[in-house]
Amino acid sequence: MTRILAIADEVSDSLWSGRVRRLDPNLVVACGDLPFDYLEYIVTMVNVPLVFVPGNHDPDLKAKPQTLSSQDFQRPLSLATLRREPAGPMGCSNTDGRVVHEAGVRIAGLGGSVRYKPGSNQYTQRQMTRRALRLELSSVSRRARSHGKIDILITHSPPYGIGDGDDPAHRGFIAFHRLVTRLSPKLLIHGHVHPYGRVIPTHRLGSTTIVNVVGHRMLEL
To answer: Model pTM?
Structure first.
C-alpha cells in the first residue's frame, strides 16, 4: 500500500514543521498553486519523491524543461548538476503533460485551468483537449504499456461538472472525461476549487475516484 500526501492551492500550517514527517508518506503529489519553497521544504523533510503539476497562479514552466528530479538529490552533487537551472521547485518532478513512475506508482499529469483572463497555465477547452489527447497517446504507447496502467492522474482543475465551480475561473475541463475513461486511473487528484470551510465530497467517474485535495489530504493506494 502506498501512502500519498496530496497537496494543492493552500499552504497548510501544520506541514510547515517537522510534524510533516509523522505523516510518513511514500509519495507527495502537488496539484498546483503552491509556493515553490513550500514544496522544496516538504520534499526535503519527508525525503520521498514529490511530483507536481502547475496551477494557473504558477509561472510558465514550459519554456525551461524540468532538469532535476528527486533522483538527483539521492546522488552526490556534481558541478554539472549545480550548473543546471531547473524549472520549478528543486528536488521535485514536473509531470505536466508527462507520465512518470515514482514510488511504485504510475502517474500522469495535466496542469492549468480554464482560460478566463490573460496569464500562464490557462487553456481553452479546445487547447486542453489537444493536451489531453497527447497525454493519452503517450500513456498507451507500446513502451508506456510495458510499465502498466496509470494509477493516478493529477490535474490542477477538476473535470467539467464534477466538483468544479459555476464561475468561469473554476469550471472544469470537458476533455478530462474522455481521458479518465481511456486511462481508468484509480485516482484523479486535483485542486483549484477552494472549499472555504465546506466539506468537499469525493466523486466517482467510472472506476476512478476523484478527490479535491486543496490544503492537504492523506490518501492510500
So the answer is: 0.87
